[in-house]
Amino acid sequence: MKRYMIVVLLVVIVELCLLFGISLFFDTNLANTIFLGSCIFAIFAFLMSSTGDVLSKSGQMAVFDALLGGYKPQHEKMTLRISPFLVGSIFCFGMYFVLYYVGFLT
């Protein structure tokens, strides 16, 4: 559990630093960059953590077609694995609200 929390904290720090760097490099509004970037990170993390979605379904169907029906597709069951990347991305989204209401992003 301790290692899991360290990885989550590391993900939050890396995402916030990356978004802060993008904001400085492109000279954009920091609040908008952190909000949109954290939304994109959260959606990407959700897609990477889930199975049974459109991305994995098409991959499994490609294997099914390549093996001429010798592969049993398993996309009927949808699961979501709570990974440190997903939790860190959600915390990064929450950090936007904390930083905005504290007054750092005004």
Automatic annotation (TrEMBL):
Keyword Membrane belongs to the record: yes
Residues annotated as transmembrane: 7-26, 32-51, 82-103
Source superkingdom: Bacteria
Keywords: Membrane, Transmembrane, Transmembrane helix
Record's protein name: DUF3899 domain-containing protein
Species: Bacillus timonensis
Classification lineage: Bacteria, Bacillati, Bacillota, Bacilli, Bacillales
